[in-house]
């Protein structure tokens, strides 16, 4: 599915509420086996408010279309409060936003 800006907005607003209820400040332990060496590894992932923007792949922009950095907590707050407008963000040009937005609802089912 190719996401429009409105599709992206709707998805991140809906998932932000689920992220808050299901994942915020929680830890997820992932245990896996590396096939070539047949070794068991693990990684612990913690879900903070500042991580949500990265999971969406969206970039906050100012009124001139310039990317605003270091505003991930503000981005998350806008999503949770249902205040993120389509004029406040852009989809990354490298295509990763489309992939992340497709995977985001699946992550909320954890």
Secondary structure blueprint with pairings:
Blueprint: H1 5-22, E1 27-34, E2 39-46, H2 52-56, E3 58-60, H3 72-80, E4 89-91, H4 96-107
Antiparallel strand pairs: 1-2, 3-4
Structure write-up:
The protein is an alpha+beta fold. It has four helices and four strands; from the N terminus they run αββαβαβα. It has helices at residues 5-22, 52-56, 72-80, 96-107, and strands at 27-34, 39-46, 58-60, 89-91. The protein has a two-stranded antiparallel ribbon with strand order 1-2. The chain is globular, with a radius of gyration of 15 Å.
- The SS-based structural class is alpha+beta
N-to-C order of helices and strands: HEEHEHEH
The general outline is: globular
Instruction: Outline the biggest β-sheet.
Output: 2 strands, antiparallel
Record field, number of beta strands: 4
Biggest sheet, spatial arrangement of strands: 1-2
**Span from first to last CA?**
22 Å
Question: What's the helical proportion of residues?
Answer: 40-55%
How much β-strand is present in the residues?
A: 15-25%
List the main descriptive attributes of the protein structure presented here.
110 residues; 4 helices; single chain; alpha+beta; two-stranded antiparallel sheet; 20% strand
Quick recap of the structure?
This protein has 4 helices and 4 strands. The strands form 2 sheets. A two-stranded antiparallel ribbon has the order 1-2. By secondary structure, it is an alpha+beta fold.
């Amino acid at each position: 599915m190719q996401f429009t800006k409105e599709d992206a907005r709707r998805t991140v607003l809906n998932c932000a509420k689920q992220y808050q209820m299901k994942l915020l400040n929680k830890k997820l332990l992932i245990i896996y086996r590396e096939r070539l060496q047949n070794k068991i590894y693990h990684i612990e992932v913690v879900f903070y408010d500042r991580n949500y923007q990265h999971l969406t792949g969206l970039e906050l922009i100012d009124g001139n279309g310039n990317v605003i950095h270091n505003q991930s907590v503000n981005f998350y707050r806008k999503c949770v409060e249902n205040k993120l407008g389509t004029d406040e963000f852009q989809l990354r040009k490298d295509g990763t936003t489309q992939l992340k937005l497709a995977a985001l609802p699946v992550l909320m089912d954890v």
